[in-house]
Structure formats: C-alpha cells, structure tokens
Write a structure and sequence with these properties.
Largest interface: A-B, 101 and 93 residues
CATH class of the largest domain in chain A: Mainly Alpha
Oligomer: heterodimer
Shape of chain B: flat
Helix content of chain B: over 70%
Number of strands of chain A: 2
CATH topology of chain B: MetI-like fold
Largest sheet of chain B: 2 strands, antiparallel
Number of domains of chain A: 2
Radius of gyration of chain B: 24 Å
Structural class of chain A: mainly alpha
CATH architecture of the largest domain in chain A: Orthogonal Bundle
Number of helices of chain B: 9
CATH superfamily of the largest domain in chain A: MetI-like
Number of helices of chain A: 11
CATH architecture of chain B: Orthogonal Bundle
Distance between the termini of chain A: 44 Å
Strand order of the largest sheet of chain B: 1-2
Strand content of chain B: under 5%
Chain lengths: 284, 295
C-alpha cells in the first residue's frame, strides 16, 4: 500500500465528512425553526390562567383547562385497559406459547398487522363499534377504548421484550423451590421486568397523547368540563386541529396549545429514555 | 431438552389454571380486536365494496351519488411516494454521517435529537406546515396548500425514524465488515458506499417500506396542508385530497351510502397498509435467513 493512496483516502473522507455535516446541520435547522415558530406565536398566550380556564368563543379566547382534563381522562381510560390486557397478552406469549409454534407466529402476525393499521381506520372502527354498536356515543370512554386498541401492540412488544430478559436461572430456581407459576410470575418475573413494563407504559402514553385522528369521531369535540366518562371531550391534539383548521383567529391559542402538547410529548420521551436506561441497568 | 420459559415445569395448582385462563383470555382479546376491525369495516362497506363498481371512478360527489375513490387513492400514493423520495436520501446521509463521520458524542447527541423529533405529534407538524410552509409555498406557487406541501411535512415526519433504523442496520454491518475493509486501506466513504450500504440493504428496504405504510396512513399532517381538493394532481403544486383526509373531513356529517363509501376507503387503506407491512416482513425474514446462511 503506497502512502499517497492512504493520504488520498483520508482526504476524500474529510471532504465527505464536511458536506454530510452540512446536510445534518441544515436538516436539524428545520425542527429548530418549528419549535422557534411555536415559541414566538404561542409563548405570549401561555399563562397559568390559560392552563386552568375552559376555552371560550370556540377557543379564540379562554384557555385549555377542560381540554387538559379531558386529555387526562382519555389517557387514563386507555392505560386502564392497555395495562392489564397488554400485560396478560405479553405474559401469555412468554409463559405459555412455544417459540416458533403456529400459535406464536399467528399472534405475532396479528400484533404486527394491528400495529400497522392507520389511526383513522381505528377511528372508523371505534365509531362503529364503541360509539354506535355498544351505545357509548361520542364519549371519553369510547375514545379511550379505541385509543387502547391502537396502542396495545406497542405496549405488548415492550412488555414482552422485558419479560423475556428474565434470566433462565430464576426460573430454574423457582421450579426447584416448587413455586407455582402464579407465584413465580407475581414474586419474581413481574418485579424483575417492572422497569421494562414501565417503559412500555411511557411509550404507550406518548403515542396516545399524540393521537388525533382516532379521537375525532369517538371522543368528539365538546369543550366543556367533562363530568363523567360518558361525556364527550376533546383532547389537546384535537383542540389544535380544530383551532387551526375550523376557527379563524384561533392561531395564537393553537400555537400555545401546541407548545403545551410539545412539552408533554418531549417530557414523556425524556422519561422513556431515563426509564429505558434504568431497565437496561436492571437487566445486566 | 432445551430449557425455555414454556417447558420449565411448575407445580400446577388451581391458581395456575386461573392464571392460564386469564392470560389466554387477554391474548384472545387482542386477536379478537383485529378480527373485529376487519369484520366491522367489511360489513360497513360491503354494499359498495363488492357489489358496485362505483368506487372505481374519478368523480367524488356525494350529493350526486358519485363515490369514486380513484383520485384520492392516487393522491395518497403520490404524496407518500414523494415524501419517501424526499426523506430517504437525506435519511441515509444523516445515518452514515452520525455513525462514521461525526465525533461519537455528536453522533449520539444527534440520534437523541432524532428520538425527540420522532415523538413530536403529527398534528404539531401539520400546524407548523399550515402556519409556515403553506404561506411560504404560496408566495412561489399559489395556493401553497398542495401535494408538495403535504409531501414535505410527511418527509419531515418520517425522517427521524428512518435515520434511527438506517443507523441500526449500518451499525450491524459496520461491526461485521468495517475492520476488514479498513485493513485493506479503503477510505471510510468508499467502504460505506461499496460494502456497508449493500450489506445493510436487506434491512433498509423493510424500514423504508414501513415508513411508506406510515405515510399512507397519516391523516392529520396531510389533512392540514394538502388543500383537500378532490382531483388528479396535474402538477406538484396542485392541491389534492388523500383517502385519510377524506374520511376525517366528511365522516362528521356523512350518512347512508356516503358513510358506506367512507368505510370502504378505510377498508382500502387497511388492506393497502397491511399488504405493505407483510411485504416488509417477508423482506426482513429473507434477510434474516440470508444472515444465518452466511455464518
């Protein structure tokens, strides 16, 4: 190998590093502009009063207090269903289904398909099944249940992954002590996998919080303070969409709401990173 | 006997049987959700889907009883493909840069930033497109809300996950081949182009396909910037309406046959996205088998 070919190689590498770095900086500039625009438009309107009062005049004035409450209700219903059902399904996959069997492949395929279904299709299904067929109407309950169907695959994948990381030795020890499977699951498996399951919960909430299309015809648009989960209530994401598209002069409040949603979404992502680090540490 | 979770033996008292029943029930419920979605969508759209040829025409005029989905199907596909065309090249460049050319801590930081961007709700991207991008395009080619605007916003939305997945694929290829290539005195850029990208291709293709499915199914971002005129786009700056946007716009007041047509477009979306997903799975599986053979 002659020296000058090596020299040539490193020179071309430096050239490539430079233009690629430029592309990277330019690409990152776009989201920075996005956040900057939201800050410039929305920050002046963002006060404690804005966070606590209900929207008035179709959202042009007033705040997002009732919208925040509805969002939390929808999220609570969604997680209340996803957690037991998803954990059950993940445990079934890990504890009772033989790897590579037809049942395992079938369930994995169902989860893959369910995970890929467009959110608007979940919205159609939720509207027909929960709102019309089960008679729940446009309500927080039908919105939360439909949302649960959508985030289930995501949560099951996360939970399954962390359950599978439980060392085989723990199982052998539990079997040697003649522990029942129920005892093993409750006392050993779930505590060991808890950080990974928590990660799944965080990821699922993030996905649910960001969702709009599912909720348009299941949870509805109503801006009043929700009194029970049979009331219709709009979430933050739906509020942004409605203000931006259907209400002229709603831009400022839409930007302020978007800012709140952005802070929540990024906060959840950071939380996920922290929990992910903890669960990685726990499994080692 | 190989020890796996399934055949590690436990005593089996009544509690275990109850546990098994509860777990089997939840797994069954998850499978049932998928079956119910398929059932209800098909039932709700059957009268137009299988009987009438009315869905396969250009005209969408619910008031006149014309329910053609072709223009919106073309719109959906055009927007998604254009978004991929815009997002894939920079996505690859960014993944390569972050892994091979940037200092490791900068690369790590960059991947963290991509993770944050991936968590931004699509309605926020749509809002930004509506407030900033559309007026900007309007100055150049009115009306601004167009196929191009929608594709740009979609591209921005799918870019972060594309970068992260390409990064994973490249990292694996690097661990297998980079040392050998560097020992031959090849440049990093040459190695990436001739060795690592071809090696990672079987994993990159499913990643791109999954993003195609995501782009086809995206509603909010597209709805807010595409202009929502039902027509075949004659230029890249023409406003269009996608299948997803059409459902979101008209579901609120649709009834009767009109509603059936909307459910039919949902059915069409479901089938399309599922087929793409199955394709991605098949490619990924073939790649997995190829790797086993190579060892």
């Amino acid at each position: 190998m002659r020296i000058e070919t090596l020299d040539h190689a490193s020179r071309s590498d430096r050239l490539h590093a430079r233009w690629m770095g430029l592309v990277a900086v330019l690409t990152l500039l776009v989201p920075v502009l996005l956040v900057g625009e939201l800050l410039a438009d929305g920050l002046p309107a963002l006060t404690t009063d804005f966070l606590l009062s209900a929207p008035a005049d179709a959202g042009r004035s007033g705040g997002i207090g009732s919208v925040l409450v509805s969002t939390l209700w929808v999220l609570a219903v969604c997680l209340g269903v996803v957690l037991p059902l998803g954990l059950g399904c993940a445990l079934f996959l890990v504890e009772h289904v033989r790897a590579g069997s037809r049942l395992e492949r079938g369930l994995q395929l169902a989860l893959d398909i369910l995970g890929g279904v467009p959110s608007i299709v979940f919205g159609l299904f939720g509207n027909r099944f929960f709102a019309v067929e089960l008679g729940l109407g446009f309500s927080i309950l039908s919105g939360g249940l439909t949302l649960a169907c959508m985030v289930l695959p995501l949560f099951i994948r996360a939970a399954e992954q962390s359950l599978r990381q439980c060392p085989v030795g723990y199982r052998q020890a539990a079997a040697a002590l003649a522990l029942s499977r129920w005892g093993f699951v409750r006392r050993i498996l779930l505590p060991t996998a808890a950080p990974g399951i928590a990660l799944g919960v965080v990821l699922a909430s993030g996905r649910a919080l960001a969702e709009t299309a599912v909720l348009l015809f299941t949870a509805g648009y109503v801006t009043r303070w929700p009194e029970s989960w049979f009331n219709s209530g709009r979430t933050l994401a739906v509020h942004i969409y409605d203000l931006a598209m259907n209400v002229s002069g709603g831009g400022t409040n839409a930007a302020a709401t978007a800012l709140v949603l952005l802070v929540l979404a990024i906060g959840i992502q950071v939380l996920a990173a922290i929990v992910g680090r903890i669960s990685k540490g726990a499994s080692q | 006997m190989i020890l796996s979770p399934v055949n590690t033996s436990f005593r089996s008292p009544a509690a275990d049987r109850a546990l098994f029943r509860a777990l089997a029930f939840s797994a069954g419920a998850v499978a049932a959700i998928l079956a119910l979605i398929l059932l209800y969508l098909t039932l709700a759209s059957a009268s137009l889907l299988f009987v009438d040829a009315g869905l396969w025409q250009l005209r969408w005029q619910p008031s006149a009883g014309a329910y053609g989905l072709v223009a919106m199907l073309v719109g959906s596909v055009a927007v998604s493909l254009l978004a991929l065309l815009i997002a894939v090249p920079p996505g690859l460049v960014l993944a390569v840069w972050g892994r091979f050319f940037a200092p490791p801590w900068v690369g790590g930081l960059y991947r963290g930033a991509m993770g944050l961007l991936a968590s931004i709700p699509s309605v926020v991207y749509g809002f930004w497109g509506l407030v900033v991008l559309v007026p900007l395009l309007n100055r150049w080619a009115p009306p601004g809300a167009s196929l191009l605007a929608a594709a740009l916003v979609l591209a921005l939305m799918i870019l972060p996950i594309l970068v992260l997945q390409a990064d994973l694929a490249l990292d694996e290829a690097r661990r297998r081949h980079l040392a050998a290539a560097m020992a031959l005195g090849a440049s990093v850029s040459g190695t990436v182009r001739r060795v690592l990208l071809p090696t990672a291709a079987p994993q990159l293709v499913p990643a791109v396909l999954l993003q195609l499915g995501r782009a086809l199914g995206e509603t909010m971002a597209v709805l807010m910037v595409a202009g929502n005129v039902v027509q075949l786009p004659d230029a890249i700056t023409a406003p269009i309406r996608t299948l997803t946007a059409n459902i979101a716009l008209e579901m609120a007041y649709a009834s009767g046959e009109h509603q059936t047509a909307l459910f039919a477009s949902g059915w069409l979306l479901f089938v399309l996205v599922t087929l793409i997903m199955l394709g991605a799975r098949a490619v990924a599986r073939r790649a997995g088998e190829g790797r086993v053979d190579a060892h």
